[in-house]
Design goal:
The protein is mainly alpha-helical. It has eleven helices and three strands; from the N terminus they run ααααααβαβαβααα. A three-stranded parallel β-sheet has the order 1-2-3, sandwiched between helices. The longest helix is centred in the middle third of the chain and has 14 residues. The relative contact order is 0.08.
Length: 209
């Protein structure tokens, strides 16, 4: 299941009227112009409203492409995994684009998780974060020390075999009901006010009798 990405948001439509060069670049890009692609990349790298308008126009041309992010510690095998995945995609006659991103800080990582449609992980911490952020999670393990997420329905424990992983991911990406079932509205790990209660308790304990 993918989010809906309109050709352009209302604000971008008005913006495009005032920036006809982007509309022309998008038209040329859709016809295969390498020069237009290079100029659009520059606009996007510069950021701002023009970059947003350009990305709004580019997405429909990708025919609903999936964006898959890989993360992990050094030596975990990310490069090998990406290489083999890209080869499988190319061998099937499809196009794949790879963008390398520098390591991010924790808050940025949380934002990436929040913006994801689906998270695949064997990390206990990421399982918790996915559950709290309301993002369906496929847990690549035979067992987990975070059973709360599985019991709540936010995570699917699929094991480590290729067939089981593909089936679990495919089910969530193609069945809206299954996907919605993983978007729980309660947090099995608490209400997020633990720190507030701890501080309140400490202040009461330190307060002179």
């Amino acid at each position: 299941m993918q989010r809906e990405y309109p050709l352009a948001r209302a604000s971008s439509i008005e913006f495009m009227r005032k920036n006809s060069d982007i509309a022309k670049l998008l038209e040329d890009f859709s016809e295969g112009s390498v020069v237009a692609a290079a100029r659009l990349i520059t606009i996007i790298e510069n950021g701002g409203p023009r970059a947003e308008a350009a990305m709004d126009g580019i997405f429909p041309l990708t025919r609903g492409a999936y964006r898959i992010g890989f993360t992990g510690p050094p030596g975990a095998g990310k490069s090998s995994l990406i290489y083999h995945l890209a080869r499988v995609i190319r061998d099937s006659g499809r196009t794949v684009g790879i963008i390398a991103v520098d390591p991010v800080d924790y808050l940025t990582f949380l934002l990436l998780e929040k913006c994801a449609d689906l998270i695949l992980t064997d990390s206990g911490g990421v399982q918790e974060e996915a559950c709290i952020l309301g993002v369906p999670c496929v847990t690549l393990r035979d067992n987990t020390e975070r059973p709360e997420a599985v019991e709540a329905g936010a995570a699917r424990l699929v094991g480590v075999s290729t067939e089981a992983i593909v089936e679990g991911v495919s089910t969530l990406l193609t069945d809206p009901a299954e996907y919605a079932a993983c978007q729980i509205d309660r947090n099995p790990y608490g209400d997020g006010r633990a720190a507030e209660r701890i501080v309140d308790l400490m202040l009461r304990m330190l307060r002179p009798q």
